[in-house]
Amino acid sequence: MICAPLSGPDDFEGWRRAARAFALAGITPSQIVWQIGGERDLFATESLPPPSPSQGAAFSVPRAFVQLAEAAILHRDPERFAMLYALLAQLRERPGSLEDRADPLVRRVEALAKAVRRDMHKMRAFVRFRELADDDGSRFVAWFEPEHHIVRANAGFFVRRFASMRWSILTPERSIHWDGETVSEGPGAHRGDAPADDPVEDIWKGYYAAIFNPARLKTGAMLSEMPKKYWRNLPEASLIPGLVAGAQAREAAMIATPPKPPSRPGNADAAWQALRGEAMACTRCPLYHDTTQTVFGEGPVSAPLMFVGEQPGDQEDLAGRPFVGPAGQLFDRALEEAGIDRTRTYVTNAVKHFKHERRGKRRIHQTPETPEIKACRWWLEQEWDLVRPRIIVALGATAGRALLGKAVTISRMRGAPIPLESGAQGWITIHPSFLLRLPDEQRKTEERARFVRELRVIGEQVRALA
Ligand code: URA
Q: Which of 287, 316, 331, 348 to mutate to test ligand 1, by most ligand atoms within 8 A of the CB atom?
């Protein structure tokens, strides 16, 4: 047996170095004992063979595997290092096996990565800071119990979100601290090390009560998104029974009250840059395989008008920008005729990776399905939240589904504004590629004119609301 020492439970770089050396030396998965923190297994006889530079150069794996392994390695399953090494060995024999959704090893590793991503999401959603006074002023302290080894990997998110605060997140495995300039780490902590309550709770409670939407009350879904285990850390959890009880009355009041114009956070540009950066590494659904890049939205973060398309096409995938191919050019001309300056709008897609199938050298567009739209709504919602447009226009059925969360019939819903929960106005119209596909020239001319008329009305609405 060969011992592979790792510096910690989330030591991806250590695993990667060792795995590369073992694979080059032809070591099989069953010969390796993966060990965390310097302890040696009684049965391990050899240590790691060092990789030589020339061997290193000969070794490559798909980027998708690296992204999958980076997430899966954070799982608490003690078998994860061995599983990943077995998958690496399998990929060297069968390079295409990562795309094989039925492969049992790929499925197991993907399940690990999925659980880790979910845990990271939970940490982002449920960490609640309490304010403490220390010698240098205020420090915000939070307690969180993750299921997996995600704390270090999630630190960047909290740094970006709370860059101007000094904060600490305490967890049983390790603590992380931010002093406004650098992140540092400390040992694990106990729940009692974090303050139990604080005036900041009133702010959270006020915020939660304000955003609680009685029209969207689904208790089952709420429990699955916010498992009871986290409730004790959340000041706003104490409000839930009361808010649920009053939901009907609040829903009636909400319908009777006209929506307020949305307001945008002060650091929206920096937050948008950070969000785009995160989306570039997105593996939330399998579509990132076999694409060039994530095609994120573009345009001013202060744009009052947002367009949502379906997904990038072949040219958008290569260029990394939405709506630059044939449909995009048609869209640009229609906008111009309608008096809308594209550079003052925010243009994005419901799905941010190009779904396609290969036929010879060509990549043929495939319509994204509900799981892909749902997975990608994570990004779209955050774009809405940052841009906070007055008007959001869904171009086509996929965008309509993403906007309203249900299937839409364009012919029935186009031509009139739809009030959205955010206070923005929604519009649904055709996708420009619909015009490209119409075989009949006269119908094409009529449909195009109708599209331009709709855009003109939308442009007038934006000006009226500004
Ligand atoms: N079609 C879309 O829906 N979006 C693009 O970015 C390009 C084509």
A: 316
The 10s digit of each residue's pLDDT in 364-376 is 999 999 999 999 9
- Across 38-42, 124-128, 167-171, 284-288, least confident range: 38-42
Mean pLDDT across the chain: 85
323 lines ligand 1 (CB under 6 A): yes
Tell me the HSE value of 270 on the side-chain side, using a 13 A CA sphere.
10
For the domain covering 268-465, report its CATH number: 3.40.470.10
CA dist 126 and 122 (Å) reads 6
- Centre of ligand 1 to C-alpha 432, Å, is 9
Residue 146's closest CA among 177, 189, 180, 186? 189
For the chain, the domains span 2-121, 127-193, 201-256, 268-465
Span 184-225, pLDDT tens digits: 999 999 988 887 765 455 555 554 555 455 555 566 655 655
Ligand 1 site, residue 11, Cβ cutoff 6 A: no
d(CA 313, CA 292) in angstroms, rounded, equals 11
Indicate the DSSP class of residue 281.
T
CB-neighbour burial class of residue 146 (10 A; exposed 0-12, middle 13-18, buried 19+) = buried
Whether residue 119 has its Cβ less than 6 Å from ligand 1:
no
